[in-house]
Amino acid sequence: MVDARYERVIGDWTGADEFVDGSGAVSGVLSIAPGPGGVVIDYVRRGGGHDLAAHAVISGERLWWFDSDGASPDQPGEAGWQDDMLVLDREHDGVRHVLGLIARSDRIDLHLATAAAGGGLAPVMSGSYSRRALS
Fold first, then answer.
1. How buried is residue 39: exposed, middle or buried, by Cβ count under 10 Å (0-12/13-18/19+)?
2. In a 10 Å sphere around its CB, with 0-12 CB exposed, 13-18 middle and 19+ buried, how is residue 90 labelled?
3. 112-130 in b/e burial notation, b at 16+ Cβ within 10 A?
4. What residues contact 32, with CB distance under 8 A and at least 6 apart?
5. The whole model's pTM is what?
6. Burial class of residue 66, CB neighbours in 10 A (0-12, 13-18, 19+)
């Protein structure tokens, strides 16, 4: 059975991400659709000199993440709920990436933190996305 909390994140979202290093804000588009046992996520971020396109599949507690920076899973990451936050935890090139999505009725807040080889998590980026109206 699919967790009913996914219903809150399903939809098309647009917003901006802000990097904690002060390098500025970039625009983003986030689409989340029902998938087999979870959801499918498509994410595009533009600006700041580094565009990124990502595709993720969440099924049960497993996460498969692919992106234009070359991330392709040797093994699945983990996905799960911590209260009202969907947490995506994966590793790529020895760096742990933890993305939290907090769904509210009219927006999703994102928080990304990373950790290199056994180090502690450090915030990298946060963002806020509003639900896009269908045209």
1. buried
2. buried
3. bbbeeeeeeeeebbbbbbe
4. 9, 10, 11, 13, 39, 40, 41, 42
5. 0.91
6. middle
First to last CA, the chain: 32
88 closest CA partner among 63, 67, 71:
63
Single-letter amino acid code for the residue at 71:
A
Q: What is the 3-state secondary structure (H, E, C) of the chain?
A: CCCHHHHHCCEEEEEEEEECCCCCEEEEEEEEEEECCEEEEEEEEECCCCCEEEEEEEECCEEEEEECCCCCCCCCEEEEEECCEEEEEEEECCEEEEEEEEECCCEEEEEEEEEECCCCCEEEEEEEEEECCCC
Q: Could you tell me how many residues make up the chain?
A: 135
- Given a cut of 90, whether residue 36 has pLDDT beyond it is no
* Tokens representing residue 68 in the block: 């234009």
Q: Is the pLDDT of residue 128 over 80?
A: yes
pLDDT at 23: 86
